[in-house]
Amino acid sequence: FFGRDGQSEQLITKLGATRFLAVVGTSGSGKSSLVRAGLMPSLLGGFMTSAGSNWRIAVMRPGNDPIGNLARVLNAPDVFGSDVTENAELQTVLAEATLHRGSRGLVDAVRQSVIGENENLLVVVDQFEEIFRFVRVSEEKEYRDEAAAFVKLLLEAVRQREVPIYVVLTMRSDYLGDCSQFWGLPEAINES
User: Fold this and answer.
1) pLDDT per residue over 136-160, tens digit each?
2) Residues 85-102 pLDDT 10s
């Protein structure tokens, strides 16, 4: 990560303008390190002046259950979840049901979690390319539909302006062409 301060500043500027950021590069090029060691500390330090320094950060990987994994990270104790195991399990189930309701599911889930007035949510989807492997491996239509629903959740969350939600993806560059499987994703990546 050493020597990438300028890149962190560029990420903050772009994220502040679009609320969506795709960090794309070859395998092993330091995409995750740039986000975790550069962008996230800068946000917590208040370097995005338009948003302040109060951030809840949910870091996830899509895996084989992208919406379920999103519900779990949103309900981690350091994001919106409870420290009490029984409450956390119930919150996760409710959040997942909310996420499945429609394209504004992430916005609704954050509203139900009662985000503070001056707080922001950053959703980091590390190794976003897993979503494409998930689609390729799944022959069943329901899995392809879930991947598309997951992408819609992320894109709709950054389009709206009622709740301060920001999304950062890290993705290997050899998967860029696969983005065309999802409506709106190539355009969002190009802008970011």
Assistant:
1) 665 556 667 889 999 999 999 999 9
2) 788 889 999 999 999 999
What tokens were used for 47? 């370097």
Identify whether the C-beta of residue 124 lies closer than 8 Å to the C-beta of residue 168: yes
pLDDT of residue 4 exceeding 70, the answer is no
**At how many degrees (to 10) do helices 85-100 and 105-112 cross?**
150
33, 44, 82 from 37: Cα distances, Å? 5, 11, 26
Cβ proximity of 144 and 138 under 8 Å: yes
148 with 141: CB under 8 angstroms? no
Distance linking the first and last C-alpha atoms of the chain: 21
pTM to 2 decimal places: 0.92
